[in-house]
Design a protein that fits this description.
By secondary structure, the protein is an alpha+beta fold. The protein has two domains: 2-28 and 212-321 and 323-368, Rossmann fold; 31-52 and 61-209, Rossmann fold, CATH 3.40.50. The protein has helices at 63-77, 81-87, 91-94, 197-208, 242-252, 254-267, 304-317, 336-349, 362-365, 395-398, 403-408, and strands spanning 2-4, 7-9, 31-39, 42-48, 52-56, 109-117, 120-132, 135-145, 153-159, 162-167, 174-176, 210-212, 227-228, 271-275, 278-280, 283-284, 287-290, 297-298, 324-328, 354-359, 373-378, 384-388. Helix 5 (242-252) packs across helix 6 and helix 6 packs antiparallel against helix 7 (304-317).
Length: 416
């Protein structure tokens, strides 16, 4: 069990790793690089990725665009590209429109995503989209891997509606065309048969990638209300399953539930335990008991920061984290002393999921190290560029200043 300060987290499996009970940390493939062309400020933007990616930069520099790119690619892998594109306002509304674009506006949007494969060359996925009328068309799509031969092995090779995928069946081996009613508005990745473990692993990991926005903690927010009792392994985007998730973990995974309570005790020294009083048949409430109080606090009585930290702690300890977990501004409403604990929670969770966090809070950066911080800067023509803090010449500055101080002084760019 990995221990940081007063917190603990037992590493366990995700659906694809199947390693629970082995006593070893899972060997998880992760996405190692992404190149984006023509998406908002990401005009021509290569991005190296690590297990923990805390993206910093000023407002409007492209941090959220990175999260939206992964959201779009995840939707495309799950057969929901058309809906996701519509939710974002359409392809044309998201094409780069910067001084850096010679034509005035990008003519297409392109993504290259690379996933590492232990002991083998990485899988590379390419997806190109171009506007057509008020909609879009998939102009190119490819999933390939260098296997040491003259040309890469192609799982998928598609160009403007001409789709081919590799069929490994004896007597039919080679690239073949779909024999079903193919939807040209959705990707081949989401439609072709699942023939190979590695390509299916890629699709499932990408499709599972999940973007968590700032938690709603309004008076009638789901996180403050009693919830239906069900088997929940995640707390939900809006905390709608927080009570069910914690109750499920208490009953089925007591070590993990104890780790969550230990995290809460580290952040709130007066915290004692969580209780789950029934409200009605099949409906549970949750209360927060403190040592100094005779009666517990109901969820609607907790502060915004307490609720958000409880939700984040549950999320980052959850056994069913997706392959990529994206969190926008996790520091909102949190007391500065909680940010050190949050940084540790992110590191622990990064052993089981690839994490991408977008923040412009120097308070959180204080508790991070340069290899965990991805800096976004804007060029003179409005284009975004990404660079890891440990690739910058800041060692001398860090001898005298903390990382957040160096950021505030402009020594790593991306001014907060």
């Amino acid at each position: 069990m990995a221990i940081r300060r007063r917190m603990g987290c037992r590493i366990s499996c995700q659906e694809l790793t199947k390693t629970r009970g082995t006593g070893q940390e899972p060997s998880v493939n992760f996405f190692k690089s992404l190149k984006v062309v023509g998406f908002r400020r990401l005009h021509s933007c290569p991005i190296g990725l690590r297990r923990l990616n805390v993206v910093i930069g000023a407002n409007g520099c492209g941090k959220t665009s990175l999260l939206d790119v992964f959201t779009l690619l995840a939707s495309s892998a799950g057969g929901q590209l058309a809906r996701s594109m519509s939710d974002m306002g359409g392809l044309d509304a998201n094409l780069s429109n910067l001084l850096a674009v010679p034509e005035g506006k990008s003519q297409e949007m392109a993504f290259d995503l690379e996933m590492e494969i232990p002991d083998h060359n990485p899988l590379i996925y390419r997806l190109n989209l171009a506007p057509i009328g008020v909609g879009y068309e998939i102009t190119d799509e490819m999933l390939e891997q260098d296997q040491g031969k003259a040309s890469p092995f192609k799982h998928i090779d598609a160009h403007r509606g001409r789709v081919r995928y590799f069929n490994p069946q004896p007597g039919k081996q080679g690239l073949v065309k779909p024999t079903w009613d193919y939807n040209e508005k959705e990707t081949a990745l989401s439609q072709v048969p699942r023939m190979f473990r590695e390509s299916e692993d890629f699709r499932m990991r990408l499709a599972s990638s999940t973007h968590y926005h700032v938690l709603d903690v309004g008076r009638r927010a789901p996180v403050r209300l009693p919830q239906q009792m069900k088997d929940a392994r995640l707390p939900g985007h809006d905390g709608e399953d927080l009570v069910s998730c914690l109750f499920t973990l208490r009953e089925t995974d007591p070590d993990r539930f104890s780790a969550i309570e230990a995290s809460l005790q580290a952040g709130f020294p007066g915290f004692e335990r969580l209780n789950f009083p029934p409200v009605a048949t099949g409906i549970l409430a949750m209360t927060w008991k403190e040592k100094s109080s005779k009666t517990p606090f109901a969820m609607h009585q907790l502060s915004e920061g307490t609720l958000r930290f409880l939700w984040l702690t549950t999320l980052l300890h959850s056994p069913a984290l997706p392959a990529v977990t994206m969190i926008d501004e996790p520091e909102v409403s949190l007391h500065p002393e909680l940010l050190s604990l949050l940084a540790d929670l992110l590191r622990e969770a990064a052993q089981r999921t690839q994490i991408i966090v977008a923040t412009h809070a120097d308070r959180l950066v204080r508790f991070l190290t340069p290899p965990e911080v991805l800096v976004v800067n804007l060029g003179e023509k409005g284009e975004a560029s990404f660079q890891w803090a440990d690739e910058l010449d800041i060692d001398a500055w860090l001898d005298e200043y903390t990382l957040d101080e160096a950021w505030r002084m402009g020594r790593i760019g991306a001014r907060p």
